[in-house]
Structures are given as C-alpha cells and as structure tokens.
Amino acid sequence: MKFKNIVKFSVLCFAFGNLSAQNPWPKTTETAKPWTRWWWMGSAVDKKGLDKQLTTLSNAGFGGVEIVPIYGAKGFENKYINYLSPEWMKMLQFTTDKAKSLNMGVDMAVGTGWPIGGPQVSEQDAATKMIVQTYSIQPNEKFSEKIVLKDEKQKNLKTIKLDIVTAYNENNEAITLTDKVTQDGTLNWKPASGKWTIYAVFVGKTLQKVKRAAPGGEGYTLDHFSPDATKDYLKSFDTAFGNSNYGIRSFFNDSYEVYNADWTAGFKDEFKKRRGYDLSPYIKYLVSDNESEIAGRIKSDYRETMSELILHNFTENFTNWAHSKNSKNTNQAHGSPGNLLDLYAAVDIPESETFGSTKFDIQGLKRNLEDVNTKEVPDINMLKFASSAANITGKPLISNESFTWLTEHFKTSWSQVKPEAEQIFLSGINHIFYHGTTYTPADVQFPGWLFYASTNFVPENSLWPNIRGLNSYIERTQSVLQSGKSDNEILMYWPVYDQWASPKGKDMAFKIHNIEKWLHPTVFYENLEKLGKSGYSLDMISDKMISEAKFENQNIQVSKDGGFYKVLIIPQLNYLPESTLKNILTLARNGACVIFQSEPKNVPGFFEFEKRKNELQSLWNQIPFQQNGNLKSANFGEGKIILSSDVEKGLEFLKIEREKLTDSGLKFIRRQFDGGKYYYIVNHTSNQINQNIPLNFVGRQVALMNPENGEFGIAEMHNNSVKVQLKSGESLIIKASETPDNSISKWKYIEKTDAPIVLNQPWQLTFKEGGPELPKSRTLDKIQLWTNFTEDASTQSFSGTGIYTTTLNLKKKQADDYQLKFDKLYESAKVLVNGQEAGMVWSNPFEINIGKYLKKGKNTIQIEVSNLMANRIRYMDQNNIHWRNYHEINFVNIDYKPFDASSWKVQPSGLDGEIQLIPVYFSK
C-alpha cells in the first residue's frame, strides 16, 4: 500500500528536534509560548495560590499571563482585594517576581472587566453622547418653551451643557442660534416668517459603567475621545505604580465596547479645526435619518473626526504613557469608531480577537452544531487588520485573544483548538493569548472558579494532562512566526471612506460581531478572499500609511522596520481623497507599481468637495493610460499604473507571482529571515497531500520541520518544488535557505506501509485522577468507550483519565517505524510503550509513531485517555451540586441563557473502533 502521508507524532518534548544535528528551529523565548488571560475573580488572590498556579502554568508550557481582575465569587468577599490598592500591588509584585523566576512574562489590563473605566473616571471624563431635542415654531408663533434637557436620567448631572442650537425652515435654510439661548434656556429669537424646526444638541453622558468590574474597579466608562479624560484616568496608575512598572511587560486595553458614545466636550471645535467648516449649520444631516448625499458627506466628516480623536487623544496617549513606565502596550482596536489600521499601528502589540467556531473540512474533526454559535465565525481577513498594521509598521508581535466561545462550555477538545490556532497564524498573528484561565484558590473544589465566556484552559480541566501537546505545537510554530519579518508582497488599500460615507446611522463602530454588515459585502473583501485563495500574500494599508510610504530599493515601504511590498492595489471604490491619490501618484512617479480596479471619481466629505473632486479628476487625467489587451497600463515616472477590473490580470501583467501551492488546497504564510524564507503550510482540506508543491523561493537548501514534534530533515527537491506529505489536519514548516547545512539528515518520507496489525485483543481498563468517583477497573474483550457501560453510573459521570493497557506479541520488527493509529479517540491520550513515554495524541489524524519503543516479542502498550469535563458537570447539575456561585453574571451557556447541563447527552469517552499498528517504510 503506497503511503499517503507524513508520519504524525505528538511528542512531549521540551527540546526541539534531533539534537545530533544542527537545529534549524529558531531559539524559543517566553513570547513564543502561548500566554493566557488570567482572570482574578474579586482579586481574591494570595501568595500560595499565585505560586501554585503560575508553577502549574509554567510546567504546562505557558510563557506568560495577562491579569484581568473581574467580579468575584460569592462567599469569598472577605478575601477580595481592591484594585490598585497597596495590598493589590503587593500581590502584583509577588506575581511578577514569581513569573520571572519561571521565565514567564506578565501583562496587565489597565482596568477591570471592560471597557476601561472605574472610580477614577469623573462625570466630566465619562463616556459622552449627544442628546438631541427638536422643537417646532409655527408661523407667527412666539416660541416660549425653554430649551433645557428633558432626559430625567441626565438632569442631576453637573456637566450637561447645551452645545449647538440650529433652526431650519421649510427650504432647509439654516440659522445657528446657539448664542441666542440664555443660561435658563430662553431663546431670544423670533423668525420673520415660515415654519421652523429647531435642533438642540446637548452634551450628555452615556452613563455606562464598567462591565464585569472587580472590587475597586467599579465606575463610569471612559470618554476615549477626550485627551484630558485619558490623562486623568492614567493618573491613578501613576499613583499606584510610582516610578516602577512592577515587572509588567505590556499594559493591555480590551476591545472598545462603549455604547452610544458619539460625542465629546469640544467636539464642535475639533470638527471645525480638522474638517475646515462649522458643523452647526449642518447638524440636522448628522442626527436625522435623511439619506441624501449631503447627509453622507457630513457623516463621513463626523466619523473621520471621531477616528482622529480616538487615535490621538486615547491610543497615542496610552502608548506614550506605557513607554513612560518602560513597558509596552497592547490594544484591541476593533469595535471602535476609528480607522482600525491606524489604531492598531499606534501601539506596540496590536491585538485581534476570535469569537466562535470555524467549519473546517478536516477529516474526523468534531463540530457538533448544537455546541457552537454558528452566527459568530472567525474571519481570517478581519484578523489581518491587526497583522497588516504590525507588518507595515514593523511591530514584531501581533497578539490574539483566542478561542472565546469556541464551543459550549466543557465540550472543547484540544483537537478543535488546533485548526482555529492555525487559522490565526495564517492571518499573520504570532502571539496567542488563550481565553482563558481563571485563578482558583487551592481549597476550592472542582470545577474551580470559571469565567462565563471562556474556553476553560484551567488545571481543573480533565484534558489538562495533555495540554502540553497543544502548547508545544504553538510554541514551535510561534518561534518561526516571530522570526524575521513578514514576507507579503501586496498592499491593498482599505477604502474606509466608502464605509464612512454611508448616510445611514450616525457613529460607526467596526466590530468583529457585525462584519457581515461592514466588511463582507464590499469589493475590498471580495478581493482579499480571491487573492488569498489564489496564493497571493497581502497586507491592508490606510490613507495615513500611504502618506508615509516611500519607494526605495525597488519596493514600497512605510516604516524602516516594516515590510517591503511590490505593488499597491486600490480596489473598486466610491470615494478616494484627492490627497491620497496625490500620494499614490508620488509613489508611482518614484518607481512603484499600482493597480486601480476602477477609476476614482469622487472625494469624501463636505468641505469644498466640488473643488476637491475636480482636483481628483485633474490628478487622474495626468496618467497616460494606453489600452493593453483587456486592461489599461501607463508608465508614470519610474513606475507603472494599471487599470483593470480583474486585479489578478493586473498582477500577472506586472509579473507579480502567486504561490501555486494553494492550487492543491494548502494554505500558507511566509516569513523572511536573513538568508532565506520560512513557509508555514497547513492542510485544512479533507484530502491527503503527497506530491511536489512549487515554491517561489527555494534557495540552495530546503528543510522540513514538523511543528507538532520538532522533527526536521532535508527535503526532496524537483526543480523549484518540494516533496510534501500531509494528511488532513496536519501542518508543516518549510525552511528555504541560501546557506546549506550538511549536518542535517534527510527528511523521512514514507515510501510504503504494510498491512496493519489490528489490536483486537483484550484490554485492561483502569482509571486514575478525575471524578466524581473513579469507575471500577474491568477487562475488555475489545477496545470500547468506557461510557458504553451504562449499567455503571460512575462511567457516565466520570471526567478524568482512563488507562487502556494491552500486550502485543511482535513476531518480527523489520519496518523502519510503526505507526499507532486511533480510529476514535475521545479526546486526547498519552501513549506509553514498555513503560516509556512515546508522546501525546491530541489532534487529527490521531496517530503516533512508536517504533523506537517497540521490541521483538512481547510489548506492553498503555494508553492514558483524558475526556471532556462535560460528563462530570452534567452529573453535578443533575444532582443539584452547587458550583455556579458568582456575583454579576452567574454563568451562562453559549446562547447567553442560564447554564444547565442536566439535560445533556453523555459525551463519548475513551477509545472506540479499531486501533491499528501500521508498519511503515521510509524512502532511501
């Protein structure tokens, strides 16, 4: 039987690869390991518990923690510690000292719960909104009503003020009356004739409080658009931290989830300064549902101003403050009403977020529809906003809040986590943060303290014995993806003004939870999808980045530390600023290649838009296009400009080569290092890949590296293609180097396999660690699930580890290796052969090579299987065992309804189907 694939290992291995050869893996650091968000419930932590959990996390392969204090557990109120209090700072110092001794890092949220805010946020600094009241004046009517705020919730606030008063007649003629209103709300104005409508805009407050706040962190949400509010907010951290950063690597700000914050004190003046005109006469177009062109232009200017304010007044100030503490900062820009690319680029570590579960075509990958939220599917192109900003500006780390609500609680296996992690990596992200881990005091019983929206990466998880397999895989992969720099060749402009120009609504937040509205329907997104599948590598670029870009050394570059790009694509759009077109033409004049999918015909915004539109047209007319087949091309200065509705045709015309390996269904991301390139390649198809795949760069030597077990070897080459064997669900790293290393041995390709040996003999089944009680041991005639034994109630409720043991008489040992293949494994396992650990099996296709541990004659095979937490939680809910006991949200299911596992089906646990031992032979 001809081989179908690379032999798959899941080896518990702290050192990478074969130590007898020069190791091609990059040196690993704590940032290469996965980190985890670490919730301190009620900040009810103590030194003993912190020491224990940090040590446990370190032993499991975690590189760091991100502290986020939240609401607490009931009954522990006397152990709560107020956020940033002297006692809290002592616990923080102990944490960072302990972490340092374990070679771990510590990050910390600048706030509790989310979004940021707290007791230090005064009414003045709280999130702000406009409150609009309208009044009608009939012809010849004396207006006697007072223009005062009617909102009862706002009446007792001291900072409320009247900001704009504008009257419109039936012909839409406007008169600004703000200075005609006295302090008591009397309007000193009477129209000469006609019917008028008055729009009065008050500066109000959203009154939103911090969600899931920890003790000492309760209070108003921050006004992100006010520089004074940001500076005032951070003063409490200056007081707590003094001149030290207490060992914090990076200060973290969670996603922007501030609701109805659409104004700030001084917005009117900022708008005039930035947009060139007074908003007051046009306020009607901003606050009403009028969907005219002028409304779209006014709203575009409003949204652009909001974007600039959150960038300059919050994000840049946050970054500068973190640097003043000799720390970095991490920011989740998504959800905010700003240009995501610019916001991500303004911090040290841009952080994206995944939420929900992706449907992959991987053979045997479990995805039960009743256990996933099908409305929330992670999107690789949404993740690229963060990685693009980092790649362009030269940020070495791009992080991700990973696996939020991946499946229903207690039903997530490590095999389901792996492809989601791979999709994150393929987007260009290289620094994963699990969502997450909850601190639990040592004396709290199973399941410990848990957070309502997380995948439970906690020591109490019955799958914990095999988490090192997943963590080692992520560590090896990230060690590569954090090396060198991104190697994407294309820049694609994000036409954000097409979004901002929508006459619908008012403020516009770019959330991960509504990408079906603002991202998916666009031609921009269509291009991202199409080019990615065709084998092109790209980053997104903003107007601001284009203004900073230069063409040097035959490439477009925005930052001296950032990536080099061969071409800039301007997708089909409705609005392009004339200043951006001017900057694009400057790049082309200096030698850059640019592709326009359509002719830009309009400019965004209201101020002198006809004049600016003519400037845009005049700039466009400078391009001497000539028809060239089915596209137009022009030599422009030292560069080229292409006009083609088919972007791929334009790329072909410019001889920008795609990676043809995607034709086989493989996905990839590429990194460049001094003297070569890395390719990270993933097989998310249902097919096995056993073929030569072409690479655009092969150098003088190509090594294959298995991120799951650390193995490596020199690949077989045929011209510019490399032989690859990958089963469905597997991944591989290809290192193409200009400098050969003769100390590395050849990669072990499987040439053939003999008929499998089916292990259908009797097995012993025993149990260790888990609960609520250990089922009794038994002898099995054949391999089967322990949950098959329904007559024993303990097998239905047990979550933990069951040990399957058998003996095998190997009459001859002639094959190069022997692959142990599992038909059905629920959910992960550690394999021991003749008392020696062979490794872990935790992901598809559930195989492991054990040949070096086997001997001729009698062999003992022991398989320690760990199952999900689900069956034990089901038992606890069926028996009314109290475990959900939290303040605030007291645990919910994936649909945000009260959690109850009592009606769940028993989750299959253990081993089922055939277990085969397959003799394999490597090519010579």
From TrEMBL:
Task: Cite the GO molecular-function annotations of the record.
Answer: hydrolase activity
Keyword annotations for this protein, in alphabetical order, are:
Hydrolase, Signal
By its UniProt entry, which InterPro entries does this protein fall under? Galactose-bd-like_sf (IPR008979), Glyco_hydro_2_N (IPR006104), Ulvan_degrading_GH (IPR053161)
Pfam families, per database record: Glyco_hydro_106, Glyco_hydro_2_N
Coiled-coil residue windows = none
Residue ranges occupied by any Glycosyl hydrolases family 2 sugar binding domain in the UniProt entry:
791-868
The secretion signal range is: 1-21
Task: Please name the NCBIfam families in this protein's record.
Answer: rhamnoside_JR
Protein family: Belongs to the glycosyl hydrolase 2 family.
Q: What is this protein called?
A: Glycosyl hydrolases family 2, sugar binding domain
Read off the lineage from the record.
Answer: Bacteria, Pseudomonadati, Bacteroidota, Flavobacteriia, Flavobacteriales
